[in-house]
Design brief:
It is a single chain. With 310 residues, this protein is an alpha/beta fold. It has two domains: 189 residues, Rossmann fold (3-Layer(aba) Sandwich), CATH 3.40.50; 87 residues, no CATH class. 42% of the residues lie in helices and 12% in strands. A seven-stranded mixed β-sheet has the order 3-2-1-4-5-7-6, with helices on both faces. Helix 6 crosses helix 7 and helix 12 packs across helix 13. 38% of the residues are buried.
Length: 310
């Protein structure tokens, strides 16, 4: 859902952190988290982090980085998750997996999803879901002749489980939610809002997500939720828009809802549809703009990033 998925995440992360270090704040709201890495870094500096994203698959990643303070998968948990992972049943519990994966991989993902529900806590389920999603993404890295180099998914899950972020407790009430971003903003009280603007698009969300849509269908257990999710987000920032003026109107409505948050940092990627000045003008109609920071990533993607503080 974010416009940040076309470039090295670490490049964006360094830019984001460089700008945020210039602002004084003890708590931050991130309405479109996209990934939990930024919040995870800020958590380790003692900041209270409230992260949100309407996608459940993104919530799992954010939870691991931000909300998890002490839980880790045990060897017994991993055995539970991988129990009979390749054993086919009468039919797939989630038949939409067959639209994305081979029969064998579909059974593995279906069984692992069922086994994750057997874990004791929400935190353990989030950690396991994040790893399983990474294993599913691993499948897409192979095609044609290099497919023979692929490891079995159970082996991949075990390897990925050893690479998970270690839990960290900063003694703050860090939270992750899956609300519509405008609703999250209205209900959240922090020193700073970091609003990573979603990329403008005119497509239904499932189409806009492309291959990444499988993650949401896997974690939710079906594909029957898309219409409900899109209807809930309709006429809000992140919904499909046909024109620049429509997008700007939705942005201004979101910023109005955030008037109670003292400081803003609005992150934008120039993609030919919206220029940084368009965003600056929209912010300035509501609040005085303090500074504009830019970073040229043209060598990687032909885009330029900006963060506007207000």
């Amino acid at each position: 859902m974010q416009g940040y998925n076309k470039i090295s995440p670490r490049s964006w992360l360094a830019f984001d952190l460089n700008v945020l270090r210039r602002i004084e704040f003890d708590s931050i709201a991130i309405p479109f988290s996209g990934s939990g890495e930024l919040g995870g870094y800020l958590k380790r500096t003692g900041v209270r982090v409230a992260a949100n994203d309407p996608l459940f698959s993104t919530w799992a990643d954010s939870y691991v980085h931000i909300a998890n303070s002490r839980e880790e998968l045990s060897a017994e948990d991993i055995e539970t998750i991988l129990e009979d992972a390749y054993v086919p049943d009468y039919e797939l519990k989630n038949p939409t997996l067959a639209n994305w994966f081979s029969e064998t991989d579909s059974w593995w993902l279906d069984n692992v999803r069922r086994n994750i529900d057997r874990l004791a806590t929400t935190g353990l389920k989030a950690i396991a879901s994040r790893i399983a999603i990474a294993a599913g993404d691993y499948v897409f890295a192979f095609s044609g002749e290099n497919r023979r180099l692929r490891q079995p998914l159970s082996n991949t899950f075990r390897r990925l489980s050893s690479l998970q972020p270690r839990p960290f407790d900063n003694r703050q009430n860090n939270t992750c939610s899956t609300k519509i971003p405008d609703d999250f903003i209205a209900e959240t009280h922090t020193d700073l809002m970091f609003l990573r603007l979603p990329a403008a698009h005119a497509q239904p969300l499932r189409t806009h997500l492309g291959r990444a849509a499988w993650r949401e269908e896997w974690i939710r257990g079906s594909s029957g939720f898309w219409d409900k999710l899109e209807n809930a987000a309709a006429h809000r920032l992140g919904a499909p828009t046909e024109t620049k003026s429509q997008y700007i109107q939705l942005l201004e409505e979101t910023l109005q809802r955030a008037s109670h948050i003292p400081k803003w940092a609005v992150a934008h990627v120039e993609d030919g549809f919206l220029q940084t000045q368009d965003i600056v003008d929209a912010i300035a109609r509501i609040r005085r703009v303090d500074a504009i920071y830019t970073k040229d990533f043209s060598e990687l993607t032909g885009t330029k990033a900006a963060i506007i503080t207000a």
